[in-house]
Description:
The complex is a heterodimer. In chain A, strand 2 (33-41) and strand 3 form a beta hairpin. Chain A has helices spanning 16-22, 26-32, 88-95, 156-167, 211-219, 258-268, 298-303, and strands spanning 12-14, 33-41, 46-53, 58-67, 82-86, 104-109, 114-119, 131-136, 143-146, 150-155, 173-177, 184-189, 193-199, 243-248, 274-275, 295-296, 305-311. In chain A, the strands form four sheets. A seven-stranded antiparallel beta sheet of chain A has the order 9-5-11-12-13-17-14. In chain A, helix 3 (88-95) crosses helix 4 (156-167). By secondary structure, chain A is of the alpha+beta class. In chain B, 19% of the residues lie in helices and 42% in strands. In chain B, strand 16 (250-256) and strand 17 form a beta hairpin. Chain B starts with a strand and ends with a strand. Chains A and B meet through strand 8 of A and helix 2 and strand 9 of B. Strand 8 (131-136) of chain A pairs antiparallel with strand 9 of chain B. Chain A: This is Cell cycle checkpoint control protein RAD9B isoform X7. Chain A: InterPro entries: Rad9 (IPR026584), Rad9/Ddc1 (IPR007268). Chain A: It holds the Pfam family Rad9.
Amino acid sequence: MNDNDTISNLNCKLGMKSILPIFKCLNSLERNVESCKIFTRSDKCKVVIQFFCRHGIKRTHNVCFQESQPLQVIFEKSTCSNTLMIQPRVLAEAIVLFTSSQEEVTLAVTPFNVCIKSSNEESMDLTSSVHSEMFVGPDEFDFFQIGVDTEITFCFKELKGMLIFSEATHAPISIHFDFPGKPMALSIDDMLLEANFILATLADEPSRASSPQSLCLSQKRKRSDLIRSNSKAGKNVTSKALEHISRKAAPKRLCPNETLTDISALENCGSPPLKRVSGDVGEVPASSVRRAEEVLASPCLRKFSCMFFGAVSSDQHFSHPFDSLATASDSEEDVNYGSFSTF
Amino acid sequence: MKFRAKIVDAACLNHFTRVSNMIAKLAKTCTLRISPDKLNFILSDKLASGGVSMWCELEQENFFSEFQMEGISAANNEIYLELTSENLSRALKTAQNARALKIKLTNKHYPCLTVSIELLSVSSSSRIVTHDIPVKVIPRRLWKDLQEPTVPDSDVSIYLPVLKTMKSVVEKMKNISNHLIIEANLNGELNLKIETELVCVTTHFKDLGNPPLASENASQARNPEQMAEVHIDIRKLLQFLAGQQANPTKAVCNIVNNKIVHFDLLHEDVSLQYFIPALS
């Protein structure tokens, strides 16, 4: 809150290594801490977390933050033709089927059953890995709506991470998806928080086309800040606007910078053209650098995912429509773009 | 070649899972031999395994409610498959509360052992889990290397102590030296020794008992106090001991002086033989 008592939003990043130790010992926190106050001091670029403990003890942690310019993603969960809601426990039982080295899994749905199975890239040695699959009937889901029979393939690690996260909330997980290539959403809607994981899915077959790119551009309602000069990010259209803390799943695994823009186009496109890279999937073909038509397939999909948090607070306020959600790259160019809402 | 088998009994399934876990701990890759009456898990004494060999045998009718197989030919009615042991044990681990488990040999682009599990679930519909474990069919000409090893004429035969105790002793000894001497006599005494420049450590097990000897002549000729010993790689012994989850029904150790140590275990109805050669 600034001096004029108007509410403004701060988009920043905090290091996980700084935050985690503060909230690590849940038992001792529950026993000793009476209340907790979190506020920011923008003059010092710090977030201050104060624990008011028993016996008059006050513990203060100052954590530095970095301003961040998030990526913007358009994704409407409600427009997805397939929606499943399932208890985390059931998904967890499916997860144990796969080894930790499993990179991708495929979710195949028909109106009669749902199958989750291991997905192997063509380049892999098929004769050495176990292929596992599990069929689950519709009655195991809390909500089952399948509009179109489809099979989507996405990153297993992200699913596992999200599942571990959801175990804390005990709320059912909703899966929203359409056809391969279109992003899918895993969401949790609890009393206290709403979390959305948007994952990219593998497209069915490679297609080089300029039309998907132009389609994307025409679908966007508003242009906004450029992350890269040759692509544009769309506006966020979610109406449920609350305090947003955003983070990127694994910054270390970020795709090469040039393909970031392609990713945002990817997210926004219906079926982005993807090329399956056979052989060493870590390589980026030099020609794919600046053209959205030649977006890298698997490596990017595995590396890119966003997570959005919405914390429900009693005094809800609708944020500025230009609020963005996803975090962007760590590149210095970000600083030049966009308007930061600072305290 | 055909193979299909089914387990419906929970106890049998758990037992089979335990056997598979044990095999996974003993050998990374092993051979599964399927014959009309038995299943064998085999590790032959190639250089790759460091000279260690293993022969595990179970009667199929103790486990499977249905069992059908057709070998390579009528004359050679057996199937030899090479597989990664961990794949099988991991697949079976997901069958904890299964209503039924089916295993069959399939060919989905390449030969597989397909494990199909029908899980009980809270709702009315049951969940079906399938694992396709890739296997290699071993050709007939290589079968001669995979036959049951002949039990050597041992100098000393002795019952083993509680394996858990033995394992914890060997685990600690491994920190001191890789070279272990295992020795025993016909007086029920077994010693585990390690010797380094700085220290010698010996653990003595007494009153173990010796199984009755096959031939009377041998027992008369040998001094009961005299020890027969083998120098072995401690890590191989440790791997063997680590694979034993429960204490076996019967555990015998046969020592051929300076040649080989042979462990003969019986876990309920599953027999396991493990051979560790002497260090050269």
